[in-house]
Design a protein that fits this description.
Length: 389
């Protein structure tokens, strides 16, 4: 089998890239190691930058988002008994969009189904080969048969645990990592959100976040030790702890209900460089991971896809490969700025195990400074709504 771009990974990055290329007549085949249902049932990100929203519109998959997504003009930051608002609209002129990754992924798969795009689900032993030559190919097992796809390029959109990153030789690839000594326990519940905007709450018992998917579906998170397991947290224990960590007014009006999903995610910062090697290009979590505090993971996958899509267009339309040569440096530059923001926001909002009282007071002072400083609020808002592409 032959295609122009073989895309490994059917998460948001791979799906969006495939859809954008298709609209410009560039052919791709998608390989996904899980079932479609598994991919669609993963509860992950919920906040889209305007750049991501625009890219979804460009990809022709925004109809439901434009109808049901909820634009947010700001967020609340709470620390102890103080709470203040960061007004995105006033500080940057831009909102963010509440639209879940699950919905976005469903729309992208629907678009694939409509155009009968070729997807191999439940693939095994995916192996990108000869990517440093002009004739790369990918082998994999599907339904017990070995397949080979000859292609012009391989897009590695296979997430953090994928195989594509490792196809860049160890002598070339550099990896940078910071693990955080805590996780996020997330609960999804069919209850109205406690507040019309997100609340990020730094509390002496640990961080808490109140988020949402729509007017009747709430998403809440609690910082927890990585040793905790979801079975340790009954729904009641979760709600009690959330009430303790969020501002009193919110705690008093919080509507609780049974959790329809409960999971613990580790927090990690990671990136690899370069993000390309020969005819292999990495996009999204395959090249970088950020802690979720700044809501940047999915948005970075989208900005990588933006750069890569434009580089492919330049190559196929004008025969100009400069976009492909510059892809890694352009993508990494934006990734690192968003990574810095997610790292900074994580560090000021979370309680570290055995944290000296001094450090805790410095975190409080930093949040107090943001409360009182227009320029600090602008910095936060500018990063949160998304840096320019
Ligand atoms: P994905 O979504 O991980 O998709 C990669 C896809 O590749 C498949 N795959 C392979 N396919 C073929 N062959 C192989 N060898 C393969 N290996 C893997 C996988 O099955 C998968 O379908 O990466 P992508 O597309 O780059 O998208 C990135 C986003 O999904 C990610 O950045 C965010 O979801 C990160 N993230 C969050 N981001 C936020 O902004 N807010 C959040 O609240 C948030 N919560 C999360 C998250 C990531 C999590 N992970 C990765 C564990 C919660 C979790 C639990
Ligand atoms: C979410 O709604 O899942 C969410 C929102 C904001 C974040 C992280 C996660 O910073």
């Amino acid at each position: 089998m032959r295609t122009q771009v073989c895309i490994v990974g059917g998460g948001p990055a791979g799906l969006l890239l495939s859809q954008l290329l298709h609209l410009k007549g560039i052919d791709s085949v998608l390989l996904e190691q899980r079932t479609q249902n598994y991919v669609l049932s993963r509860i992950r990100a919920g906040v889209l930058e305007l750049g991501t929203v625009d890219l979804l519109r460009k990809a022709g998959v925004s109809a439901r988002m434009d109808r049901h997504g909820i634009p947010h003009d700001g967020v609340s930051i709470a620390c102890g008994n103080q709470e203040f608002r960061i007004d995105f609209r006033q500080l940057t002129g831009k909102p963010v969009m509440i639209w879940g990754q699950t919905e976005l992924t469903a729309d992208l798969y629907d678009a694939r189904d409509e155009r009968n795009a070729q997807t191999f689900f439940e693939v095994r032993a995916v192996n990108p080969q000869k990517v440093d030559t002009d004739n790369p190919f990918v082998t994999f097992i599907h339904n017990g048969t070995v397949h080979r796809i000859d292609c012009e390029f391989v897009a590695g959109c296979d997430g953090f645990h994928g195989v594509c990153r490792k196809a860049i030789p160890d002598t070339v690839r550099r990896e940078y990592e910071r693990a955080y000594p805590f996780g996020w326990l997330g609960v999804l519940s069919e209850t109205p959100p406690v507040s019309s905007e997100l609340i990020y709450s730094a509390h002496p018992r640990g961080f808490a976040l109140c988020s949402m998917r729509n007017q009747s579906l709430s998403r809440y998170y609690l910082q927890c030790p990585m040793t905790d397991r979801t079975e340790d947290w009954s729904d009641n224990a979760f709600w009690d702890e959330l009430r303790r960590r969020i501002p009193e007014a919110a705690a008093d009006t919080l509507e609780t209900g049974p959790s329809i999903e409960k999971s613990i995610a580790p927090l990690r910062s990671f990136f690899c460089e370069p993000m390309s090697w020969g005819r292999l290009f990495l996009a999204g979590d395959s090249a970088h991971i950020v802690p979720p505090t700044g809501a940047k993971g999915l948005n970075l996958a989208a900005s990588d896809v933006h750069y890569l899509y434009h580089a492919f267009l330049l190559h196929y339309r004008e025969g100009d490969s400069s976009g492909l040569s510059e892809y890694s440096s352009k993508a990494v530059a934006r990734v690192l700025k968003a990574m810095r923001f997610a790292w900074w926001f994580t560090n000021i909002m979370h309680l570290l195990p055995d944290q000296p009282e001094f450090d805790r007071r410095m975190q409080e002072a930093e949040i107090d400074f943001i409360k009182d400083s227009d320029s600090a609020q602008s910095m936060l808002a500018e990063n949160y709504v998304g840096l320019p592409y």
